[in-house]
Amino acid sequence: MWRVAITIAGLDSGGGAGIHADIKTFAAMGVHGATALTCVTAQNTYEVREAQCLSPQLVRAQIMAVWDDMGIDAGKTGMLGTREIIEEVASVVGKLGFPLVVDPVMVAKSGAPLISEDAVDVLKRRLLPVAKVVTPNKPEAEKLTGMKIASVNDAEKAAEFIHKEYGTEIVVVKGGHLEGGEAIDVVYYRGSFHKFSTPRLESRATHGTGCAFSAAIAAGLAKGLDPLEAIKTAKQFIYTAIKYGVAKGKGHWPVNPTAWVEIPAERWRAYEELRAALEAIRKNAALFAKAIPEVQSNLGYVIDPRYAVDVNDVVAVPGRIVNYMGEARPSGPPAFGASSHTARKILALVGKDPNARSAMNIKYSPELVERARALGYKIAVVDRRKEPEEAKKIEGGSMKWVVGEALSQTGGTAPDIIVDLGDWGKEPQITVVGRTPTEVVEKVLRLLS
Ligand SMILES: Cc1ncc(COP(=O)(O)OP(=O)(O)O)c(N)n1
Ligand SMILES: Cc1nc(C(=O)O)sc1CCOP(=O)(O)O
């Protein structure tokens, strides 16, 4: 069943915070997202240039238009701009009664005010009493309580104070601005404290964190999750959104709410692509068997390089592709993290050429190199005897060195094949490179045919 969540918030023209962050979050969390726009800001990752708010009546009309048509299962507020808008939102939410998460946005990361000074009191006295959850960060909690917050203990006192003073049922004081190796959020709920923590990320991608976090809680509530479950999931969600942030802009980069669904989707796509390519090898098993080297072959495929961190993001064949009685056979179904050499080679390749996402090692022979030349393949030849001792000592250093040498011959874009002439105790090999495993398999087939 579809659930509806509404964001009552401002627009950030840079798309990092405000309603953009909220709607991306709603979509990633699987709820239908609706909007009541409060203010328009001309904003990017480093400054707010202009801001203009709509009339309170128009904000109410947007909420009512959604309510009258599909109902609202939960909502959240972000930038509310003026005291009049806050009063109107408090009045309409109080009447409709859907669970509301208030992100008490006061100042943008760039330092610009997002709410007028005289509105903070209205937010405390009118909006917080009708909210189910409020999610202040340290400076916001300090402003709401008048307390200084320097520790988890202080955060607990502030959370309890906000509940008792303003009546919000659940208070989440976020730990992003506190010191320590873990970012600990403190939750006050029904007389008890709960802590949710994730490792602290030293990331530049923090624009929109408060927006996406509160939207994720609202999405959880809209789906009917227990509030603590909704907060716990939102914490994991925002960790992912920061870790895989959008590396764009001159200031604080935008968080990436879609990483939550894009990464699992990418892994599935990569798995399926590799499976299809292995099927093509099976169909030509006798031909491929001739190309299996002593160390055996592997075929790997990395997920979208924006999300690739290490060998666990490369899908390959566990136990490699072997020559079994004259037929090439994958030893098992594809798995992530199944390859070391091929995976490192691919990671080094995509680090320089984002299109070179797949590779397979095959047996070296001068005839195959000649055939590649005849086919017009772009070829790089690497002499492993020249590999410096330092590269050999580093984990995965050799693969990086081979790829670096190869791409220095081809102007920075990946060749079709890298010919590795081997060294003492190192079998010479050919690595066939392509955008997808299917393309790699096709290139190998052409070489062997
Ligand atoms: C339109 C708009 N709404 C909210 C914000 C706040 O976003 P940000 O500055 O990233 O701070 P957090 O709330 O995410 O901590 C904004 N800048 N613009
Ligand atoms: C053992 C070996 N060495 C290679 C090289 O290119 O030097 S390719 C290879 C076989 C594949 O290994 P994996 O399963 O770790 O990808």
UniProtKB/TrEMBL annotation:
Keywords: ATP-binding, Kinase, Multifunctional enzyme, Nucleotide-binding, Thiamine biosynthesis, Transferase. PANTHER family: HYDROXYMETHYLPYRIMIDINE_PHOSPHOMETHYLPYRIMIDINE KINASE THI20-RELATED, PHOSPHOMETHYLPYRIMIDINE KINASE. It holds the Pfam family Phos_pyr_kin. It catalyses: 2-[(2R,5Z)-2-carboxy-4-methylthiazol-5(2H)-ylidene]ethyl phosphate + 4-amino-2-methyl-5-(diphosphooxymethyl)pyrimidine + 2 H(+) = thiamine phosphate + CO2 + diphosphate; 4-amino-2-methyl-5-(phosphooxymethyl)pyrimidine + ATP = 4-amino-2-methyl-5-(diphosphooxymethyl)pyrimidine + ADP; 4-amino-5-hydroxymethyl-2-methylpyrimidine + ATP = 4-amino-2-methyl-5-(phosphooxymethyl)pyrimidine + ADP + H(+); 2-(2-carboxy-4-methylthiazol-5-yl)ethyl phosphate + 4-amino-2-methyl-5-(diphosphooxymethyl)pyrimidine + 2 H(+) = thiamine phosphate + CO2 + diphosphate. GO terms for biological process: thiamine biosynthetic process. It comes from Pyrobaculum aerophilum. It comes from the Archaea. CDD domains: HMPP_kinase. It is an enzyme of class 2 (transferase). Residues 12-256 form the Pyridoxamine kinase/Phosphomethylpyrimidine kinase domain. GO terms for cellular component: cytosol. The keyword Cell inner membrane does not apply. Catalyzes the phosphorylation of hydroxymethylpyrimidine phosphate (HMP-P) to HMP-PP, and of HMP to HMP-P. Condenses 4-methyl-5-(beta-hydroxyethyl)thiazole monophosphate (THZ-P) and 4-amino-5-hydroxymethyl pyrimidine pyrophosphate (HMP-PP) to form thiamine monophosphate (TMP). The keyword Nucleotide-binding applies. Pathway: Cofactor biosynthesis; thiamine diphosphate biosynthesis; thiamine phosphate from 4-amino-2-methyl-5-diphosphomethylpyrimidine and 4-methyl-5-(2-phosphoethyl)-thiazole: step 1/1; Cofactor biosynthesis; thiamine diphosphate biosynthesis; 4-amino-2-methyl-5-diphosphomethylpyrimidine from 5-amino-1-(5-phospho-D-ribosyl)imidazole. InterPro entries: Aldolase_II/adducin_N_sf, HMP/HMP-P_kinase_dom, PM/HMP-P_kinase-1, Ribokinase-like, ThiN. Its EC number is 2.5.1.3, 2.7.1.49, 2.7.4.7. One of its GO terms (molecular function) is ATP binding. Residues 273-445 form the Thiamine-phosphate synthase ThiN domain. In the N-terminal section; belongs to the ThiD family. In the C-terminal section; belongs to the ThiN family. This is Bifunctional thiamine biosynthesis protein ThiDN.
